[in-house]
Amino acid sequence: MIIGRLDLHNRIIRKRLLFLGITTTILTELLSEGLTYYFIPYIGKEAATFLFNTGPILPNLLYILSATGSVFSILIICLYITEKFENNWFVTSIVQTGQLTLTHYVSHVFIGIGTLILLNRMEHQTLLFVLLFATAFFIFSILFSVLWRKKFSRGPIEWIMRKLAS
Question: Which secondary-structure segment (H or E) carries 152?
C-alpha cells in the first residue's frame, strides 16, 4: 500500500527502492542459508530447512522478506523497461495483458485447468507438455488482451467487478 502512494516517477525514490529491494533479498537469502547451516547439527537438515527456507511452501517471515525485496526490484525494473521501450509492440502487449490481470487469473482456472481436465492431462505430464501448454496459454492470453483492448478499456471480469462495486 505504501508503494502505491510513492511518486514512482521520481528517480531518487526508484533508486532507493531498487537498492532496498536488492539488499533485502540478498541479506534475507544469506540469513536463510546461515541459519539453516547453523541449526542443522541441533535440529537436523529437514527441520532447519523447513524453519529457515525462503520458499513459498510453507511461507514464513524469511519468505515474506525475500519476496518483498524481489518484488521491489522487479517493479522498478519493469517501470524502467516500460518507460524506455514504451512504443515497442511487445512491451505494449505485455502492458495490455497486465491490465486484464483479474480476467487472466480467472481464465487460467476455468479455461486453462478446465482444458487440462477435459483432455485428462491434469497429472503426471512431461515437462515438455507442461512447458508447451503454459507457453500456448500465455500467448493466447496476450493475443486476447491485445484484441480485447482494441475495443474495450477494461477486461470482462474487471468490467463486472467495477459494475458490482459502484
Answer: none
